[in-house]
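Lab manual, section 2.4: Encoding a predicted structure.

Procedure: take the sequence of the chain (98 residues), apply the prediction step described in section 2.3, and record the output as structure tokens. A sample record is shown.
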Amino acid sequence: MGCNFHFVNAVFRQIQRLGLVVAYRDDECIRSNARKLMALAFVPIDKLEAAFRLISREAPRSLQPLIEYFDRYWMTKVKWSLWNVSNVELTTNNFVEG
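Recorded output:
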């Protein structure tokens, strides 16, 4: 099990790398769709792929590089159970936070 804090930070770092920070800050639609990707960690694993596809279809074109990254890395390379915390009571591995 991974830490949701670090998962969200990794996605946001990619937003920075892709030069989407200003759009994320200023455009509610982009921010909302990026946060939906981050929230996929809370979707039950059996519904995860369908939820990702729905987000992918509804996301604005300018967010396509982030969608492609998420698909290529989080949906394909990393085992879902390592970043999905839908069935975990604690969503951190830092017990000081809990």
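Check your result against the sample. Residues 4-83 form one domain.
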